[in-house]
Design brief:
Layout (H helix, E strand, L loop, with lengths): L1 H7 L1 H22 L15 E2 L2 E2 L3 H23 L1 H9 L10 H26 L8 H22 L4 E4 L2 E4 L1
Antiparallel strand pairs: 1-2, 3-4
Helix pairs in contact: 3-5, 3-6, 4-5
Length: 169
């Protein structure tokens, strides 16, 4: 297993990620001017889509949207996206089902992806960290759930090293 970690440089990449996040967070924390980026709660200056987030009920709606939107996005990226890439579009994987099913799955994924991207712009335009934190929590939850499933399934499958990488036994 250690060969696999070394092959993908997992440990150095993880260390770089942690150092990078800490560095950027420190720089933002030290050099931030009077900005609404770290503001928490409703404000007359915060807008989402075309309405002001000036009450706690509107704020809760945006926080819930942020959490649920990222939860769905992370789940789709951990399920349908790999299915499209590794099953439907991979020439090594034989598709033994109707082509219309592949087209429908791909259409749903692409349509969702674009719809989510457009809605995500409105969240980005709030320029406030408070709306990203629920998304971060959702992403971590989905990551834990899907990683557990993949690891548990892959423990039953054994691999051996070839000149081209790792192959199932």
């Amino acid at each position: 297993m250690e060969e696999l970690y070394n092959h993908y440089s997992v440990i150095p990449a993880s260390i770089i990620c942690i150092i990078w996040i800490a560095s950027i967070s420190s720089i933002i924390g030290v050099y931030q001017n009077k900005t609404n980026f770290f503001y928490f709660g409703p404000s007359n200056e915060t807008t989402f889509v075309d309405f002001k987030v000036d009450t706690w009920s509107k704020w809760v709606i945006i926080v819930l949207y942020s959490f649920l939107s990222q939860f769905v996005y992370s789940y789709i990226n951990s399920t349908i996206h790999p299915f499209v890439l590794n099953v439907i579009r991979d020439y090594k994987c034989e598709w033994n089902d109707l082509e219309i099913k592949a087209q429908i799955i791909t259409f749903i994924y692409k349509f969702y992806y674009w719809f989510h991207s457009i809605c995500q712009v409105f969240l980005v335009l709030t320029l406030q960290l408070q709306y990203y934190l629920p998304a971060l929590i959702a992403d971590i939850i989905v990551g834990i759930i899907t990683t557990r499933k993949f690891v548990n399934n892959s423990q039953r499958i054994q691999y051996y090293k070839t000149e081209y990488g790792y192959t199932r036994i």
